[in-house]
Amino acid sequence: MKCPCHHAALYSTHVTAADEREWKTRKGRIDPRLDSLGWKRSASEPAHRTEEHPTGAGPADYVLHLDGAPVAVIEAKKLTVGPQNVLTQAQRYARGLSGAKTRFGEYRVPFLYATNGEVVWFHDVRDSLNLSRRVATFHTPSALREMLERDFERQISVLNDLAFRHDRIREYQWDANVAIERAIADRKRRMLLAMATGTGKTYTLVHEIYRLMKSGVARRVLFLVDRRALAAQAARAFASFDPEPGLKFNQIYEVYTQRFQREDFEEDDPFDPNVMPNAYLTDPKPGHAFVFICTIQRLAINLFGREAMLEAREGDSEDDAMKLPIPIHAFDFI
């Protein structure tokens, strides 16, 4: 026998979501997000937004402005409409945007968003190889400013011309590095590198991370593992890798870890971990270049809170971790 009050609650929730009008989605869901990310309502602010902005194709729901210029169009829909397929409307508005002095192909702004207040889709239209993708939320003003200031094509060119290849790198490891770099140049965002146990996966990646950071393709790198002992091993690998004469990786670039316990290290291990400052996660700076070695469990807590930690191995409970307001541009490469 089913409880009638349970049915009533389900029916009420369903009707509320179905009946939510677009204006209510905008005021109750989208506006608070934009407010929290620093997109002000006042046109006197360096980073602000306008609503119902005139374009040749009709008024755009939102336009984001940065340092006196429009940089993004947001197409808003009500909660029950999936936003992925309405990016085409944002494209129409971006083609006919008034007040824009720049051009990115056929578009007058470089960035497009579509959202229903819960799901956000994003498209960087500056290059035809860039595909639209789902993101957790909108970018902050500093994130878009950083994206505009970076010259990805030049950085890829530097990477292709980079002669560095460590004398201990094996041929198959070098082939893996080349494949990764080719995929990045093709704007691939997800790559799977499969290597057998004992073939030097960590060394291959440390070698590749140096190349990416040296060329500027990646600055802030997240190195994820599933156990704290593996994080300690990775930290030692970075500390022992010598890409430049007389210099280890962690003497050239900052390498940070989470907190460890004594049992995470081998007996008499002299390695001294450098614990990651929370501000590096919550307020990433454009010029910062560093590697953060972290467990998946800890990052889940940082992103979603302790309730995201369903089960921990003995000794891997991450008791000192906490939820942090980490923006979506915190890392270039994971």
Explain how this protein is built:
There is one protein chain. It is globular, with a radius of gyration of 23 Å. α5 (152-161) crosses α7 (201-215) and α6 (171-185) packs across α7. With 334 residues, it is α/β, with parallel strands linked by helices. The protein is 36% helix and 15% strand. The strands form two sheets. The protein has a six-stranded mixed beta sheet, sandwiched between helices. The protein has helices spanning 4-19, 22-37, 87-95, 141-149, 152-161, 171-185, 201-215, 228-240, 249-252, 278-282, 296-304; strands at residues 47-53, 60-66, 69-76, 111-115, 120-124, 133-135, 220-225, 254-257, 290-295.
Break the fold down into its secondary structure elements and pairings.
Layout (H helix, E strand, L loop, with lengths): L3 H16 L2 H16 L9 E7 L6 E7 L2 E8 L10 H9 L15 E5 L4 E5 L8 E3 L5 H9 L2 H10 L9 H15 L15 H15 L4 E6 L2 H13 L8 H4 L1 E4 L20 H5 L7 E6 H9 L30
Parallel strand pairs: 3-4, 7-9, 8-9
Antiparallel strand pairs: 1-2, 2-3, 4-5, 5-6
